[in-house]
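Q: My collaborator sent me two sequences in one message, no labels, and asked for predicted structures for both. Can we handle them in order? The first one she listed is below.
A: Yes, handling them in the order given. First sequence, followed by its structure tokens:
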Amino acid sequence: MSSAPSEESVAARVTATVERAIQRNIKGLEYFGSAAPAVGASPRDLIHARGTMLLYHYRPMADEIYRVPILVVMATTNRGYILDLAPGQSFVEFLLKRGYDVYMLDWAPPTAAEKTLDLNSYVNDFIPDCLAKVQADSGIEDVTLMGYCMGGVLSTLYQGSHADSPVVNLVTFTTPVDMTKMGLFSAWADKRWFDVDRLVDSLGNVPAEILYTSFDMLRPASRFAGNIRLWDNMWSDEFVKGYRMLDRWGADMLPLAGEYFRDTTKKLMWDNALVEDRLEVGGRPVRLGNITVPFLHVVAEHDHIVTTEASAPLVKLVGSTDKEEVILKGGHVSLVAGANAQKRLWPRLDQWLQERSV
């Protein structure tokens, strides 16, 4: 039988518990009176902008740089600073310090005049325009294209429809392809009761509030549970800082251009045309089998937004001989940001890129 705890150990536990309770209350008062922590600290330059489209170049942090630059395509519903949260917690900073030349296609809220932007605008205009600017700015013809979530979908659509693409490597994170397997999203977008035409015709652009509510409803209790975890860990400055950065990003959603939302709903969600190999964007056939460059597809094992079933067919349908699917522990966000990403995704991606970026 184990011996009973000593009086000293009990006293130490009580003291620690009391101290945390005091710190929790003090920090709780500070929490509501302090500004949110800064994000997106890696130095960068805006080298090209057209309305909702923003192209940034991050300043190098290494003496020697790999030859092939990287263009990261961010998801259209969220801002790119999730990949550059803070020094020591930044995916972009990691790539820069490892010697990669990093560009990012990020998004600003579309204006009312941009409601006519459609899927063709993103796939056949914005992406090739930014690729050309990366080529001109870097002086290198070859580019690695890397897409997160819907940015991965757009990157895949582009590469599957442009035989003359300068892309020599394609990387996608948490990228869906079979939209019938998108769980609650598939149910909410069911055309039997979701009138996308009325929504877009009435509002023009789709407000961020609608999108935020949709994501929030995927896990109705998560915000409440998150607040409990925050209070339990209010004594820890490091936990609170990380929580506030991620919470800020999660709430900082972007509206979507109306025609783009209509296109993605009808062509991708309702028709599921991509996985069934009959999608056309701007008159261009999109064929996953036409993608022949080295391809890395990263899946989050516990992704509640893009299910593993929704992303599973992608690597099989891509025509590349050099292709790989990597399934890592983590969720939709923790795959790319946070301690989990630093241990799993970042070094794994660096290993894959090294031999394909020279």
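Q: And the one she listed second?
A: Here it is, processed independently of the first:
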Amino acid sequence: MKKLIVAGIALAVVVVVLGAFTRLVDAGLGCPDWPGCYGHLTWPGTSEEISRAEQAFPDAPVDLDKTWPEMVHRYFAGSLLLLVLYLTVRAWRQAAATPDSAQAVQLRRLFSILLVLIICQAAFGAWTVTLKLWPQVVTAHLLGGFATLGMLWAIYLYCNGAPALRLNGVARGRLKAHGRLAFAIVIVQIALGGWVSSNYAALACADFPTCYGSYWPPMDLGEGFNIFQTLGPNYLGGLLDNEARVAIHWVHRLGAVLVLLVVGGLAWRLWPLNKQLALGLAVILGLQLVLGVLNVVWSLPLAVATLHNAGGALLLLALIAVNFAPPAEQS
């Protein structure tokens, strides 16, 4: 079962990265319907299929460069759902066979929660299309993907995986408050990153470290973080004005500084307690900051932006190991 969980983690990483790639190539509406694509199980390919698709969806001309990323992402996400369903069934059977096993009962509970989460993810995937990339839904969908990956990783750790990343009970207690703070800040920063992406604010500031030559550029915080925005009907390309996008971008930058201070400090304190975990956390943090800067100075290259999303996922996994891996003496 542990091997299947590892497969699930790998599949979840692929889904998260493909989700980022789909957003970055503006393929979120590559298929105007759901779960199919222009009524196809894959996507229209021949000239006849494309002609029929455009007749059925006259407001959504077929763009093959956008249909395939969307459908490939959906199929990987669907495969992850099926794998989690299978693992959940196995966990329930194991718990029924060994009712006195605390681990079996806990695994049943964790997989049940994960299955509900990933079903909700499927719903958000559908709403992403039907609500035409509404930023609130797109951001929630991104957070759901990270939560799915994080839960799979936490379950793997609970099953005594990755023993080298464990802390002993004394070290865990010493770092508890700092670890929880870093975990919370990184989650908020990931959400801010999702809000940047869903509102197309990544290039709102084209210089670094300033924005339009200022450390406090003109910005509209109220409109930038108005989660009740009802603009529409199609959010592809974003509908906020520039000052609202600058506000989103700049707050995300300020969040990166806070992450550097808090997570960097945590890595420093981890070093004498678990050098492997501390080094991994520091390397991921450093790469993530470099990728964020390169996104600005190189005008959001596709590969760098996709890796930046993956780096956020890895940072989250490292902090889950710090906070939620069973103590070393239990392995």
